[in-house]
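Sample log: Cell envelope-related transcriptional attenuator domain-containing protein.
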Amino acid sequence: MKPDVIKDWYTVQRERLHLPPANLEAEDPAPSAKNSLSRPAPRAFTTGEEPRKQEDPSRAEGKLEPRREPSATTPVPPTPKPAAHPFSQWLSGRLSGADAAKGQTFLLMGVDSRKGEAARSDTIVLATLPPNGQDLYLMSIPRDTRANVPGHGWTKINHAMSWGGLPLMKKTVENLLNIQIDHTATVDFEGFRQVVDTLGGLDLAAEKDMRYYDPTDGTNIRLKQGQPLSTGQLALDYARFRADAMADTGRMQRQQRVIRAMIQKGSEPSNWPKLVKMLDIMGEHVKTDVPPRDWMALVMRYSGTREDGIKTLSLNGQNRISKADHLWYFYVDEAELRKMSVQLQALKRGNA
């Protein structure tokens, strides 16, 4: 084929593909390349221009580049912490780390305080908190339990409160069970009513009809089966009732249900602000060696505790009349006391 024919053919093809004209006079293509189109020469870049980046062939084929790990010098932004509850921010005084790391035993008492009379213990409960745990163990002590009250001899354990107040009651319980009590708290009937009212009642209902009237102190309990304990007075009537075949045993079971319900209701985050209002109640109706803010820190520590996380322990014994003084006592034999002492000490150490 003549050179001018080849030139015309190449010109037509380049114009069809919108390619710039080629200088065939300067080219001397190899014989094998005379029938193919020539690619334009690479474009030269002038000063100030940036060359285009060539596309990675692996991307063109739909392949992904391997993920590059950040270098050691690349700063990693810190993960933001969730905002604390407003009440948690206010609560600056908490139990120390040492207190939280060790188990503790609390003596909790409900007392009947009347004008002109010494306070009488109506409810006696031991609460054991294992170290760094969410479980809570409650054990009720019948108020008719026969015990050796220091300085007074063998008698009903609740007499210790009337004779020597909280210090003597604490010492009596420690001697009975051979344990160490770390903290004490007493609440009178009016304080109990106000605490439950502040919480908005309890998520608990009477399991049966309860009727009892005592004209000597004005006690008038009238509860129907299924009736919610929506007020402090209803909760107090429920906790004090014992006019049935179960007597004190049934009453202790109800008292533990009430304590469990109060803990669960008070530990709900929506009720934390109400704990501030309870400071006024604690000042007049609650006597304790634990600072109010530490009590609230304990409530927050047990926030979200399931119902099965609050466990109960039973002190086994027999009710009978003493031949010596003809009074009604709850007798606990030495073997049962030793068994309970070992269990309480193990729970407090955290190796039960």
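Observation: The two ends are 105 Å apart (CA to CA).
Observation: Confidence is low (pLDDT under 50) at residues 24-39, 44-49, 58-62, 81-98.
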